[in-house]
Amino acid sequence: MSPKSKVGVIDYGGGNIRSLIQALEKLGISPELVTSPEQLEPLSHLFFPGQGAFGDCMKKLRGLGLVDSIFEWIQQDKPFFGICVGYQLLFEDSEESPESKGLSVIEGNVVRFREEGIKVPHMGWNSAQLRDPNLEPWMGLGLNPYFYFVHSYHPNPEDSSICAAMTEYGVSFPSAVQRGRLIATQFHPEKSQKAGMNLIENFLLQK
Questions:
Q1: Considering only Cβ atoms within 10 Å of each terminal Cβ, which end of the chain, N or C, has fewer?
Q2: What is the number of domains present in the chain?
């Protein structure tokens, strides 16, 4: 990545961001922790990791005044990487927290796994079938890379064309979406060893 690049990680006090920070440090990057809108200004790339309930996370973002700033960042097509709940919050709403609206960057909602015969949460390694393994930032990962998942809910985008990867777990669900320079994954790339590190590095090479 360019020496002028500056990477930020949204820290709203509710996500386990340490593993992502360690992954970035392995790539030689010391990320800025973002807790206020003005900290976004000098950044070139933004990560939004998430852990916890949909509604609680949105409440924390609103408390920090970050909701509008994140929305504007994405609307300006700046490099953005949402992870787990940071992926789900891009949608309009979630069955997990019916009273709370999401960022509404992507049309669609988030639903709970209901299929019989599967354990919820979906936890462990699973494959992601890539729509186009030759498309940045997926290049070099193969057609069905394996990633690490921990989740009970998954998004349902209204526009299927943004689905970058699909995963089977009782049902076929979009484990990643991509639109412009926005990428978001239900899996945790920072916990997914070589494939995850390659994906993070590829994302950071985007200008």
A1: C
A2: 1
